[in-house]
């Protein structure tokens, strides 16, 4: 009897585990959103009855349920087998059932977390927002605006989140401060007015949270969420001493009095997985967006993306954001860090503002001076002070025997001979191994400094690192020059000069190499990204639970650090949107986006076209409408508005009807080309295309706008009418833009390639510009 019983148990376990293998988190989508006045528990009951219809019993149905959504989508997430999912999808009221994409969403910092800084360097930071005092005071520094961040949580003790002197929490706020491990409700204040966390999806895939790697609470154990939150709304601290060594007015967020609502849906665990510190599950993000909508945020900043865009009906960020937009929440998303390859862009939905990354006009230099007097450009964020020239060696000349011949110059751990390195500066090359560990190896062997040379594969991009000893980074060609010098003399020497911040560098901005590029792989009729903002070497607050490099061997703790990525540029635009929202509370999210886009600037601080990192001319496929100018955006003159219904019609043109049965697509949906977007993209032009647009007057009550254009090469661009007369604010005027293919000679054989231009309206005071991208059939 006992034996049989045990065997039976064993069999059950076996069966359970084989079924387990196939189980997955699915999103069940009914279409529409906002289940009217229904309370969440009623909705949950309904969802439960759906689960009961495919599960064996009550208990199983309960256990499989993850989240019920009310605002972000009308639907729920649950653990299902493919068979159960198929059965649910056959129900008439179900729009779609799809497996939640595991591990495919990630935080959008640079590929290698290369940009690392220390407290000392931060002294030299300054306001990089380009937000005039006038704009800030008009917007009351954003104090009535609530910005939600879906990210890795927050380090609430950071001075950036002090609520000193802030007014009461806006009355409209309905959120909560969810307590958890190392996070009690006293950590929320008048700055961080809400905090929540979501991990049912994560635990479904990875099992119970590993408590040594992350806290079951809104606390940020990664750093990313703290960085983005302080970039949006970090406090400006008037006194250096108050900031533990920071200079006045530094590391300030763009909307310093805006309120923060923290939604932790990305986790620093499991570190053993490739997705370490980068794991955001769709089911969790949807729950976060759901709560953010209900809590009453005004702006959502989501620095999360995918390497490849998913179809709109299968992309949790896109669907959730669409319903946020329905509630007039502006959603800013990062374009991604998969550039410079074409069509590498994520978050392409036209109801988002998709943000690319460019440089600041600031640089960190630490040049090398050789014994022969030659000065070589070096870049570093390592604080140090070498007082004199030191002997200089090339790593390959001082390596221990047995190192593989292709790795003698790499300064890999244990590869250097201490007797030959002691007291010297070592030239090491990139290629294999961590950059920081190369510095540690030089230090271990008794060296006094590191010159880190790029490999040819690194191109012209400098790596900015905070090493453990005096160190600077040089380009490949310069590393070769240094090596030549070492070979040319018996007593090579060098000094790495003290690192300093250089302001007003030119040209700036240039586009980061990593920023993801258009054309829009999902819909070539929508030009993406929309805009660009600073995303290279951005200083902001950091989690004290995570080292600045996030490498296991790096034990340093910093309060502020420098990071790069479209993750860093997205919160800049979210901050600008928060200020605009404060000034124009009645504007739609489309109007705010339009204002930011049509006032953006396509030139750098030398008055020349914005370039890529390699100096080539950048295009709207990397910067969208250009570099953001929040001060101009407060008074754009005209806006291209669009409503939630316009986006539903747009989705109809893609064959999706999310809102079944509330909203029915017309038999002949309008072309995506005619969505009232502040930019124009026309793929495969052959003959003539007529584009319709409508502008709303938000400038002077009586005004006259004139049309002009810089047509893309090989096409002509005309507007009808070409003059717009307005006699009151809020008045709308429609016009058409006729884009006509020129002769073969004017096209100069440019087949399939994209060419770029712009058109604009101006009344003499305002410039309302829209970029254009056209490719030929
Ligand atoms: C909350 O946590 C903080 C810091 O960990 C602690 O100082 C404080 O006493 C706690 N407050 C309550 C009400 O538990
Ligand atoms: C939890 O994380 C720690 C630290 O990364 C690791 O050593 C340990 O193996 C993990 N535990 C489990 C059960 O994965
Ligand atoms: C700033 O610090 C100085 C001295 O360190 C002090 O005299 C001054 O009152 C402080 N200002 C503020 C606004 O705290
Ligand atoms: C050097 O060769 C080893 C073994 O063939 C290989 O694993 C490694 O990636 C190479 N390193 C470089 C820098 O080419
Ligand atoms: C840009 O990145 C690509 C791919 O990582 C690399 O091949 C190229 O050299 C880089 N370009 C510059 C200018 O750094
Ligand atoms: C362009 O249009 C012309 C006339 O309608 C047609 O003959 C030609 O095949 C089209 N070319 C392409 C590449 O579609």
Descriptive account of the structure:
By secondary structure, this protein is α/β, with parallel strands linked by helices. The chain has five domains: 81 residues, Peptidase S8 propeptide/proteinase inhibitor I9 (Alpha-Beta Plaits, 2-Layer Sandwich), CATH 3.30.70.80; 351 residues, 3-Layer(aba) Sandwich (Rossmann fold), CATH 3.40.50; 139 residues, 3-Layer(bba) Sandwich (Glucose Oxidase, domain 1), CATH 3.50.30; 32 residues, no CATH class; 100 residues, Immunoglobulin-like (Sandwich). Helix content is 23%, strand content 23%. The strands form nine sheets. Strands 7-8-6-11-13-14-24 form a seven-stranded parallel β-sheet, sandwiched between helices. Strand 2 and strand 3 form a beta hairpin. Helix 2 packs across helix 4 and helix 8 packs parallel to helix 14. It starts with a helix and ends with a strand. The site of one 2-acetamido-2-deoxy-beta-D-glucopyranose (NAG) has 4 residues, from loops. The site of one 2-acetamido-2-deoxy-beta-D-glucopyranose (NAG) has 3 residues, from loops. It holds the Pfam family PA.
